Amino acid sequence: MSIEVIGISKTFGTFKALNNVSLNFPDGELVALLGPSGCGKTTLLRVIAGLEHADTGRIVLDGADATDKDVRQRRVGFVFQHYALFRHMTVFENIAFGLRVRPRRERPSEKDIRAKVNRLLDLVQLGWVANRFPSQLSGGQRQRIALARALAVEPRVLLLDEPFGALDAKVRKELRRWLRTLHDELHISSIFVTHDQEEALEVSDRIVLVNKGQVEQIGTPKEIYEQPATAFAYSFIGSVNEFRGRVDGDFVRVGDEKLRFQTGTFKNGQEVVAFSRPHDTEIVANPQSEDGVSASIKRILGTGAVARVELVANGEAREGRKEFFEVEIPGSDVQSLGLSTGQHVKLRGRRLSVFADQNGTQAAS
Amino acid sequence: MSGDSTSLLTAVRDANSSLITAANEWTAERAKTLDQIVSSLLAEADQQVATSIDMSGVRAFDTFGAWQLARIARELKSRGREVTIIGLQSQFAVLFDAVQKSSDEADRVQPKARLEYSGVAAVGEALTRAWQNFLLLLNMLGAVSVSTLRALLRPSEFRLTSTVHHLDRVGWQAVPIILLITFLIGAIIAQQGFFHFRKFGADDYVVDMVGILVLREIGVLIVAIMVAGRSGSSYTAELGSMKMREEIDALRTMGFNPIDVLILPRVIALVIALPILTFLGSMSALYGAELVAWLYGGMSPEIFVARLKEAISITHFKVGMIKAPFMALVIGIVACTEGFKVKGSAESLGLQTTASVVTSIFLVIVLDGLFAIFFASIGM
């Protein structure tokens, strides 16, 4: 089912959680709503579900306006971060609950309910826990049961609110993969909220990047990673080295030093922020080199095919801490450049992406 | 110091852009001139055009100059202009960055509340909060009323099992403690009555006092306060913890109205249980008073009962019983509203539970006062 969000705004007191958000979620895709905590992604999900009412804007489900419909009529399945299973019911009863409480006319027979719940339990690979209580299950198992419960009512759309947020790293990874496979089987339109960029990149068909109540960028994980549209997108996705300074001809002037950048239309003297991915950053062993920002090597990790070099800026500490850089270079370069801990070097970007510093919307890479 | 006549600042303006060119020394030595020039520039600048500030001609630059430059940038930006600073030499740029950052921070400092107004402000805030809480209570009362109507129209959807379950918890299981407390209260009132009335030889009137006091006021008040502390708090805690674990949202996504499923059964159970508990409590209090009268006051049970028959009428009993369901409603609505107010943390659960008990006891006593006025005016 397609989901369309048109001009949604929502304010809590004086805090603007969503600011005129418009989105279109295509049918059958698994979409990640990605953003830092407090950016409004969960609010957006709750507005789509009907758990929260937007101040302005409309929600269109399957071409029909659902703004004034309540949760029940929207037929959404919702999976909560803390599972929200009913504690006094067994796993079986939890999953059957949504079916049992339907009005008598629509309620399936007891036999059908039984068959359906068993099918769902098999789907989440937990057939053997049917008669246990939620408290007897592990976190990962509980979340799978919660998902089965959400699916039991045959929702037209599945909404997941940080579904793996409360789980430990290993279970998280496992469930992530499992969710992907499950989605490939069911092909139900799904939206999941996460603040974990790795999770979003790995699982979703499409990522919606949200910041401060606004959509920053929409795209496939590949697009988002390789062509970040804004400074925020660049710094939020993947690890990145950041240089702040002013434009000076073909260079970005960072303090007393300068970095050459290739393309972009900026006025001289404009404040900009330049980004470079660790694998696109070069180390120049000569600290007297013209081009580059000086830093000193703090640690060299891994001497295999790829070595990771951590550096700190030589300049003044900003906001109480020295700037930190990370560079990935072929392991052989460590020897050929003769790098060692404590050494003073210069850093420069092979592909420097430069954005205007003020609002971070003007792109040039 | 090179001549004062050389210009520090010139502004050239055309239709859609403005160029400000700075030159010479921007230092504290030229403070007075610089300040005047900047002030007059800012006073004239009213058009919303993009502005560039060319600093390349500046030969000396100190904190004062940096502050003036930051001031121009800030003032123009606040008037909706786009400001770009160009050509600032890099050794000056560092200083300018530091000054601009600290002056931006200074802008964000909240003005301190003035001491002489803080009391008034606190009263105002408390009043708004109280009003908001009152609106929330009304909202809940409305929702429960609608839910009751729905249940009346479609009795099959009323959650009887849940209601009976809560009736057991707030009614049946509360009986022992209610009996004990009211028994003790009745006994204490009687004892105090005998102790003081005896001085005037008015022993007989102790029975009048106990009878009327217990049936009209003390019975229902003590029971309502006990129930608010015992059941009201547990309602708030239950609903609050369900809210914390998102179970209420889960119910809603499955097509339930939380008011129908969670709140109506609880409120109905209280409204049924409280009159019954009030009746039991009043009887227990009278029994306690009778025992004290016999053992301490030397008044035989026969005389106590005979005197009680003369002293009280069915009206006194009615007054107490009529109040009970209304108090139950107040307790139920307050407890459920507070429960729904719980946010994600355990701390907030504790706060709301306390608020629930305090508010409901307060409102129960206020309601009792209103009833006293009402009954007095209709002569009951």
TrEMBL record, chain A:
Boundaries of every ABC transporter domain copy: 3-237
Residues passing through the membrane, by range: none
Annotated family: Belongs to the ABC transporter superfamily.
Record's keyword annotation contains Chaperone: no
Keywords, alphabetical: ATP-binding, Cell membrane, Membrane, Nucleotide-binding, Sulfate transport, Translocase, Transport
Entry GO terms, CC: ATP-binding cassette (ABC) transporter complex
Gene3D superfamilies assigned to the protein according to its UniProt record, in alphabetical order: P-loop containing nucleotide triphosphate hydrolases (3.40.50.300)
Domain of life: Bacteria
Database matches in InterPro entries: AAA+_ATPase, ABC_SmlMolc_Importer, ABC_transporter-like_ATP-bd, ABC_transporter-like_CS, CysA_C, Mo/tungstate-bd_C_term_dom, P-loop_NTPase, Sulph_transpt1
GO molecular function, a single term: ATP hydrolysis activity
Protein name: Sulfate transport system ATP-binding protein
PROSITE patterns: ABC_TRANSPORTER_1, ABC_TRANSPORTER_2
Automatic annotation (TrEMBL), chain B:
UniProt-listed Pfam families: MlaE, STAS_2
SUPFAM superfamilies found in the cross-reference section: SpoIIaa-like (SSF52091)
Main location (coarse class): membrane
Keyword Cell inner membrane among UniProt keywords: yes
Occurrences of domain STAS (ranges): 53-94
Keywords from the UniProt entry: Cell inner membrane, Cell membrane, Membrane, Transmembrane, Transmembrane helix
Annotated Gene Ontology cellular component terms: ATP-binding cassette (ABC) transporter complex
This protein's record includes keyword Cell inner membrane: yes
Topological relation to the membrane, as annotated: Multi-pass membrane protein
An annotated Gene Ontology molecular function: phospholipid transporter activity
Subcellular location: Cell inner membrane
Transmembrane intervals: 134-153, 173-194, 206-229, 267-296, 317-335, 355-378
Similarity comment: Belongs to the MlaE permease family.
Reported function: Could be part of an ABC transporter complex.
Protein name (database record): Phospholipid/cholesterol/gamma-HCH transport system permease protein
Taxonomy of the source species: Bacteria, Pseudomonadati, Pseudomonadota, Alphaproteobacteria, Hyphomicrobiales
